[in-house]
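Annex B. Sample input.
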Amino acid sequence: MDKTLLIANPMAGTGWKGRSLNKVVRRLKEIYPGLELVYTKGSGDATALSRQAVSDGYRTIIAAGGDGTINEAINGMAGSESILGIIPMGTGNALAREIGLSLNPVRAASMLANTTSKKIHLGIVNGRYFIVGAGIGFDA
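Annex B, continued. Sample output.
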């Protein structure tokens, strides 16, 4: 059985803590029976957690949070064969919008059951990877 890790950012979005996450976890456990859940506590945690998950042999790493959480996860996973799943729980959810993923976290979790993975190109600036866009100046 493939190892699957859910990295959840409880500070993403506006007050989702517990509201949708329990439903998301239940749905994901139907898809990935051995699902493990960890929470981020601060900046950089999703990178460290995803890097450790890759090192520990996790096949699928799911990031539940906003664009920042996803960005951190890809920075820990870049260059590996692990697969990134996305549960949009942020305020902007630019990547989820770009790829047509449902912005409803439970529906997004269900969509993971019926999708195939694709390799995509990452951008890199100053040693950090990005997936949708990079900002400088005011928007950064």
